Amino acid sequence: MEVTTATTAQAPTADPRRWSALLFIVLAQLMIVLDGTVVNIALPTLQRDLGISDGDRQWIITAYTLAFGSLLLLGGRIADYTGRKRTFLIGLIGFAGASALGGAAGDFETLLIARALQGAFAALLGPSALSLLTVTFTEPKERAKAFGIWGGITAAAGALGLLAGGALTEYVDWRWCLYISVPIALVAAVGGSALLTETRREGKARFDIPGVLLVTGGLIAIVYGTTRAESDGWGSVQVVGLLAAGALLLVAFAYVESRVAQPLLPLRVVASRTRGGAYLGAGLAMIGMFGAFLFMTYYLQAVKGYSPVKTGVAFLPMTVAVLVSAGGIAARLLPKVPPRALVVPGMLILSGGMSWMLTIDTDTSYAGGVLVAGLMAGLGAGLIMPVAYNYATHGVDPDDAGVASAGVNTAQQVGSSIGTALLNTIATSATADHLASHATRAPSPNLVKQAALEGFQTAATWAAGIIVSGALVVAVLMNTPRPKAAATERDAGRRT
């Protein structure tokens, strides 16, 4: 009965404008992900301009990820109750304003506030965009194509951000790494206002305030703890205390959600084995992609001596690989094969890309080193992301579309934050150990490069192992069979 009802209710919403609307939905997603990396390459330059200390510079990145990751579930529920189109447009306008404030910042504090506001408005924008996609495309083949495009843009936007950040920093000004979001947001807002159809959950808006406080506090503690581990170490009292507090708050959150009448995150949304596998796949894919960005960026600039622009260009083949894999391969196979038949191979290929780092030396050519690793990482991530986004929201009650969308966004954001902090700490420790074991009064430039490479390779090994372990879990957990929706609809048509 539920399938028939959903199909009947959603059929009238399909109109010829949905593919045009997809352009503006995807444009918003591109901006969100791009802003997570576009500032990275500009960080040394803006640090000098604003006089930011080495201890404080991490907050330019962390302020965005903290606000974004910790407020996503609340943003998803706001979208469900107050209207997904309305929340989408508010998120875009707010993001544009925060980006303009950041670009005009004259001191560290103003830039920090702007980055936190960007993250907060992204937490509104991300779930509303994905839930609009979910309720707009319901026919299986169209849905697969739409999610293929979405997943490809999501996975490729990080590399595009590095390219844009390098070009803007080198040829224009670092402030344009923030200003660039303003025209993107305004174009998406104008197009979305004209083409999108409003949808919302029926009934009076009631927000689970205890759930909001618990999940927000838990995610902030975990993300902040992993960020502090880069400087304090994983064994420090502060880091252990933050991670333990975060875990306890999330356990309390799960308990509260099982008791309240209108929970922030209904447990039925995450109880599905397939949905859980989708969340895990999205989180681990981001560990691999952001690990690849981190190590390859530092390797190309610190070891090979590439400029910011040349480094960004070096990531273009990875971007192309993501788009081909997501839009060409995954989109075609998504309606025809079980989800784990794409996610598991994708994770293994992504793991292979990280493992390829072990073959790279300080004098390895680009074609034999970074190019191969990047292509493998891109192909793997492109197989994972469309499936993860599709099945994270597939079959969910339309009333819960926003919060289900927020769940996969949260998995992605927390995965990238925790993974980056973890892998960076491992790399830094391995580099320090290598220098200590080859101690001289004045380490040569070659020794410094070799030590840096040792750190990258050690962390890449850990990343590969984590992703392979995740692939084994997904292979068991994600037990949904080959999609049969199209066949079911044809049979229903014949009976009619």
Mean pLDDT: 81
Q: What overall form do the CA principal axes indicate? A: globular
CATH level 1 class label of the largest domain: Mainly Alpha
Give the name of the CATH superfamily of the largest domain: MFS general substrate transporter like domains
Most strands sheet: none
The total tally of domains equals: 2
Task: Kindly describe this structure.
Residues 21-482 form the Major facilitator superfamily (MFS) profile domain. It is found in: Cell membrane. It holds the Pfam family MFS_1. The chain crosses the membrane at residues 21-46, 58-76, 88-106, 112-135, 147-166, 178-197, 209-227, 233-256, 277-300, 312-334, 341-360, 366-389, 459-478. It is a single chain. By secondary structure, the chain is mainly α. It has helices at residues 2-10, 18-50, 59-82, 84-103, 108-136, 140-171, 176-179, 181-195, 209-232, 237-257, 267-271, 273-303, 308-314, 316-333, 340-355, 370-393, 401-437, 445-477, 485-495. The chain has two domains: 15-207 and 264-481, Up-down Bundle (Growth Hormone, Chain: A); 208-263. The chain is built from 19 helices and no strands. The two termini are 16 Å apart.
Which helices and strands appear, and what pairs or packs with what?
Layout (H helix, E strand, L loop, with lengths): L1 H9 L7 H33 L8 H24 L1 H20 L4 H29 L3 H32 L4 H4 L1 H15 L13 H24 L4 H21 L9 H5 L1 H31 L4 H7 L1 H18 L6 H16 L14 H24 L7 H37 L7 H33 L7 H11 L1
Helix pairs in contact: 2-3, 2-5, 2-6, 2-8, 3-4, 3-5, 3-9, 3-17, 4-5, 4-8, 5-17, 6-12, 6-13, 6-14, 6-16, 9-10, 9-17, 12-15, 12-16, 12-17, 12-18, 14-16, 15-16, 15-18, 16-17, 17-18
